[in-house]
Amino acid sequence: MSESFRHGRLPLGEVGRRFRARYRRWWHPQLANPIQKLRWRAHRFKELTPPRHVTDPDDSWRCCDDWQRILAKKLNSRIFAERAGVGVPKLLASGRHVSRIPFESLPRRFVLKPCFGGDCHGVYVMVDGREAFRQIDLTPRDLGRRLAAERWSHLGNPLLVEELIQDHRDDGPLPTEYNCFMFGSRIAAIRVLRRRVGTARTVNRFYSPEWEAFEHNLFGKHGRDARCDAPARLDELLRCAAKIGRLYEIAVRLDFYMPKRGPVFGELAPYPCLGAHFGPFGQSYLGEMWKEELPDDWAREGRYADRLGIRAQDLA
Length: 316
What we know:
Layout: H1 3-6, H2 13-31, H3 38-48, H4 58-61, H5 74-83, E1 91-95, E2 109-114, E3 124-127, E4 130-131, E5 136-137, H6 140-149, E6 159-163, E7 177-183, E8 186-195, E9 202-207, E10 223-224, H7 234-248, E11 252-257, E12 264-269, H8 280-293, H9 295-308
Parallel strand pairs: 9-10
Antiparallel strand pairs: 1-6, 2-3, 2-6, 3-4, 4-5, 7-8, 7-11, 8-9, 11-12
């Protein structure tokens, strides 16, 4: 067994290095220099992701070659999904200041997350005063202190407080996620992802849009779940994903929840896992579809990866 597999690390591969190049192109100038003042960095993040509104014209959204970068801000991506006619969780509160979040008046179930970030960093899922990921009781004051101590708090990372979606399959505190890997309006695969309460571990399984289970995970090292039946409103999920994917125009992962009322948009991932974790099957399958459906996007990200010196054999 190779050194990379022994330590749970995989080479980036052609798909991974393109996603990594996109991340570096969008954000590296703002993150690379540790001497930069934090306030300046926070200002640049704000400048690069200006707020958008449902009534803004299309030209306001598609403001530059990399206009999709403004959707890395989760509040903007919510509004983008609303503009497309896709359901989103109810927004309970938002803002840059923890002290202004009305914790005492929030419902018993809610999720709090930073506008920037991924992999559930800084996310708190609260059910009757108990945090589901960490399995600890938190008062509003405790939660406020934890948020103020988060590593991103000094950047003025805005916070979102949304309703916690109730899954249509079970009554657990963490709803199942349906992650759609999109190339334009084409859905390459749907990952059914279940998070385990009290741990960061996840189990997942990949399906085609026709709900045929893949024999191999697209990710190389993640645990594989047992097969499950398709959600009752799969056709609606496919339509919503295709609609947003077409409007987004470049490769992206779209995350949805499936309550009884139908698909609800969660967030989007323009560089899933920063390009890491894709196994050999995922590299081959997604790479071929990316080249076929979005050849200009594939070529552009490849050129940037070459320019930045990101190689397929680099460990993720």
